[in-house]
Amino acid sequence: MNHDEFRRHAHQLVDWIADYQTNVENYPVKSISQPGEILATLPASAPVNSEAFADIFADFENKIMPGITHWQHPAFFAYYPANTSHASILAETLMSALGLQCMSWQTSPAAAELEERVMQWLAELLGLPKHFAGVIQDSASSGALCSIVSARERATNFGSNLNGLYHQKPFTLYCSSEAHSSIEKAAKIAGLGSANLRKIPVDENYAMRVDALQEAIEKDIAAGLTPLWVVAALGTTGSTAFDPLRAIGEIAKKYDLWLHVDAAYAGAAFLLPEFRYLADGMEYVDSFVFNPHKWLLTNFDCSTYFVRDKNALIDSFAILPEYLKTREDSQVNNYRDWGPTLGRRFRALKLWFVLRTYGQENLRKFIQSHIKLAHDLTAKMRATSDFEIMAPVTLNNICFRYHPHNINDQEILNQLNFKLMEELNASGKLYLTHTKLNGNLVLRMVIGQTNVSEKHTEIAWALIQHMARSTPG
Ligand SMILES: *Cc1c(COP(=O)(O)O)cnc(C)c1O
Q1: How many CB atoms lie within 10 A of CB 81?
Q2: Which atom of ligand 1 is nearest the CA belonging to 291?
Q3: What residue owns the CA closest to ligand 1's atom 4?
Q4: How far is the CA of 436 from the centre of ligand 1 (A)?
Q5: How far apart are the C-alpha atoms of 310 and 407, rounded to whole Å?
Q6: Rounded mean pLDDT of 157-165?
Q7: Fewer CB within 10 Å: N-end or C-end of the chain?
């Protein structure tokens, strides 16, 4: 492909993308592809000779598109959203064309300095303490890992990086029973052992019980173990529950634990001062993760990790011994030392495009509008006699179930709601997913897609009622 051909194809693609965005609502939200169906259409070996772009693109449309689940469909209510926006797509395109590796300052000074600046912007937007330094990573999972490794290194005076943990009595870690699976994964990868992660029970709002946290810590200390790290989830994945940060912070301080905050999804709500009460106690926090790639209009991946003591992070991950550092290194950020990977994408660019294209006010309106849609729909569900709201709707995740009067058996209700979800998703009109809260299967409807509006929530709600009530109980 030469430059002229590239120019032609790129123009075609832009038109295709704009058409896709215009027509995305005509696709079934969740792909109806069966296991192995796409695979069977793909040749067993890579082509020996060059193929024309037109042929590749035709296969993309005919073979790949049918197996795509449309995350950018406004009726995508599943999981948590993975927002895109025009600004972010444009920046991603530039990032891809520049093809940078942003490992050190000198591999692209603008990338390092833009990252430093947009992370300051974001910290201010979220109302985070001034002493936080930030770095952009691929995911909140990596953020959890960085946090645990930093805590481990700080507690061993950076000795476990050197000697391993062979002579260390077990450290213990704490999260709520509703914490994200990435916490347990990070505990395993960091070599601390999932058996040493205590899953603290939650209260009726699915928030961590602080009395149970304190008890677990005391028990571990009495057993000769060393409590190391605790995570407060601000917005759990299941029901967007908020752990009580201040109370957890006081305990973290008392027992000298590293306190991590997982606000991967709900962090976006801290743009709104009226929701910052949920993050009260931030002065106790050692590290904080929030994903603009979920609910802040920035293409995956863009996860922001903030840390109180950046040296605990850098000294845990630095790949150069002190004596090899240059004079320049003391004046600049070499972000390769701020996380697990050496190579890094120029993610700051898309965050910069997004923050500038929208501006603070529009970003706040965007978040506010979704919260309002969710609260309006919650009120409608509450007003019926056969739908139940199953968890507090603080932001925009509605956990609900269909509960007709004549059924009270938990197992039967669970089956009924699972079946309802599968039928709804098979309709292609919307996509939602489930979780279990207290043994009850609940449907999660997260209203956070970039282009979702009242029209979409109304159509979805009508369909949910219709399908639920016409399903034989
Ligand atoms: C989505 C989510 C994660 C995981 O995010 P990744 O960036 O995909 O690793 C972690 N914690 C919470 C609370 C989440 O909602």
Answers
A1: 24
A2: 7
A3: 140
A4: 17
A5: 55
A6: 92
A7: N
Q: Which pLDDT band holds residue 426 (cuts at 50, 70, 90)?
A: very high
The alpha-carbon radius of gyration of the chain (Å, integer) is: 24
Going by CA atoms, what residue is nearest to atom 5 of ligand 1?
Answer: 140
Residue 406 CA to ligand 1 center (angstroms) comes to: 38
Instruction: Please choose from 142, 178, 180 the residue to mutate so as to test ligand 1's pocket, defined by most ligand atoms within 8 A of CB.
Output: 180
Whether pTM > 0.85 for this model: the answer is yes
- For 410, other C-beta atoms within 10 Å of its C-beta total 12
Residue 238 sits at the vertex; the CA angle it makes with 188 and 150, to the nearest 5 degrees, is 30
Give the ligand 1 atom nearest the CA of 143. Answer: 9
Q: Provide CB contacts within 8 A for 159, sequence distance 6+.
A: none
| CA dihedral of 172, 177, 179, 183, whole degrees rounded to 10 | 30
Residues contacting 373, CB < 8 A, separation 6+: 396, 447, 452, 453, 454, 457
Degrees to nearest 5, angle at CA 467 with 461 and 473: 130
- Tell whether the model's pLDDT for residue 329 goes beyond 80: no
pLDDT at 321: 56
Tell me which residues have their CB closer than 6 angstroms to ligand 1.
Answer: 80, 139-141, 180, 182, 233, 235-237, 262, 264-265, 291, 303
**Predicted confidence band of residue 323 (pLDDT cuts 50, 70, 90):** low
Report d(CA 218, CA 344) in Å as an integer.
Answer: 41
Place of tokens 């520049």: 98
Cα separation values, 130 from 134, 169, 233, 338, 384, Å = 11, 35, 21, 19, 47
